[in-house]
Amino acid sequence: EDQAHNVAFVILGGSLLWFGWSGFNGGSALAADSTAALALINSYQAAASCLVTWMMIERIFRKRWSAIGAVTGAVVGLVIITPAAGFVSTIGAFAMGIIGAMMVYPFFQFTSRIDDSLDTFPCHGVSGFVGTMLTGCFALDGGLFYGGGFKLLLGQFIATVAVAVYAAVMSTIIFFAIKLVMRTRVHKDWEDAGLDGHVHGEAAYTHSPTKPYHSPTKNNQIANESDSSETSDNMA
Questions:
Q1: This prediction's pTM
Q2: How far apart are CA 61 and CA 117, in angstroms?
């Protein structure tokens, strides 16, 4: 299914993630100083501008805006600003959120047919690359827009490509090594029916349209209880 499992939980999870990102970026300075304060302010600035821009893009292309889109935009903004949080101005962070949203949004449409239920690649991979490149443009010290030329931007590009290649190669090796000793994906019928039942023997929503899963032992127990109840009624 291409819809969220629980919209309220998405909003809650996104809010907790945004709150945690405060420590993630603000704490990167390893000190309670002006750099930490700047990183924290920029994180919220970029997330907010990206959120609003994302909703406007949704409104233009999908004729509506959504809570899922708002959360997605905020997370994308947080990812984009992370490499630059302590090195750009608040105006730069604001601009990075807007520009980043316009650059990343199309990739969510291109990867809609890829089996990536959490949109990890466009949200973290593409957004991380865009944020790293924009850092080379908006950095106060050496950025392209602040008279630093292309030196920092080129360095950012080379470093990003090197990390991407390393991560891809090592992930491929690890994946095929694991595949030799265990399954890397559940059975398709389990996936279609829902993993809660087959893996955990329980259902998250007992009143949902999907029929709850019951193990053979549980089914026998229910049948025995039903028979005993009918016998008691007949005797009465």
A1: 0.80
A2: 22
Residue type, 92: G
Cα atoms in the 13 Å half-sphere on the side-chain side of 132: 17
**pLDDT, tens only, 206-218:** 665 545 444 444 4
Tokens 């290649």 correspond to what residue?
Answer: 165
**Cβ pair 47, 81 in contact under 8 A:** yes
pLDDT given for residue 213 in this prediction: 45
With a CB cutoff of 8 Å and minimum separation 6, the contacts of 103 are 130
Nearest to 106 by CA among 127, 78, 131: 127
Residue labelled with tokens 């924290």: 40
Total count of residues recorded for the chain: 236
Amino acid letter, residue 169: V
Q: Which stretches in the chain have pLDDT values below 70?
A: 1-2, 111-112, 206-236
The DSSP secondary-structure symbol of 140 reads: T
Place of tokens 């095929």: 176
Q: What's 196's DSSP letter?
A: I
Q: What gap in Å lies between CA 229 and CA 206, rounded to an integer?
A: 23
DSSP 29-72: GSSSSHHHHHHHHHHHHHHHHHHHHHHHHHHHHHSS--HHHHHH
